[in-house]
Write a structure and sequence with these properties.
The chain is an alpha+beta fold. Helices cover 26% and strands 18% of the residues. It contains four helices and six strands. The strands form two sheets. Strands 3-4-5-6 form a four-stranded mixed sheet, covered by helices on one side. A two-stranded antiparallel sheet has the order 1-2. The termini are far apart.
Length: 181
Amino acid sequence: MRRIRAAAAGASAALLLLAGCGVQASEVVEAGGPAVVPVAPDHDERVLLFFTGPDGSSIPVARYADPAMGPVSTARTLDALLNGPTEEERAAGIRTRLPDGNKTVEVRPAAREDSRPGEKAGRPAGAREAVRVTTGFAVRSLDAAAVRQLVCTAAHAEDPEGLVKVVLTGSAGSLPATACA
C-alpha cells in the first residue's frame, strides 16, 4: 500500500512539473526603478532630529511641525535637538550625547572655502552648500556621536537629502566642514 501511495504522489508531482501550470516563458520585462515609500512626513511638515541609541549609533527622529507656524528654520530645528529627546523617545532608548547647559545656536552660510561650488548638482538655485552652526558650548571636545547629531540635524534641516556640509563652531574653536554620513 505504501508503494502505491508513493508512486501516486510521484506521478502527481511529475504531472505538475510537466504541465508548468500554464505559465509560458517570456523575456525580462522592464518595470522601472524600485518603489519608494516615504518613511517620514514631508520636509515641510516635519523636522528630522538625530539622536543616539544605546550603542551610540545615529537614530533619526521625525517630529511633526505646526504648518501654521510656517517653515521651520534650521536654528529652530537645532533648538529642538538641544532640548533633547522627549519622554516617549527616552522610554524607547533614544539618547543625546550633547552637553547640557548653554543651548544658544546661530546658523548662517559658511565661508566660501567651506563649500565647493558645483558639488551638489541638481540642487535648487540659491540652495546653500555649507552652513556654519555656532553653539554656546565647545564643539572640539564633543565625541563623534555628538558631532554627528549636530551635523546631520543641521544638514537635513537645510536640505531634505542632507547634502549640505556643516561647519561647527563653539566656544573653543571650530571643526572642519563635515557631511552627514
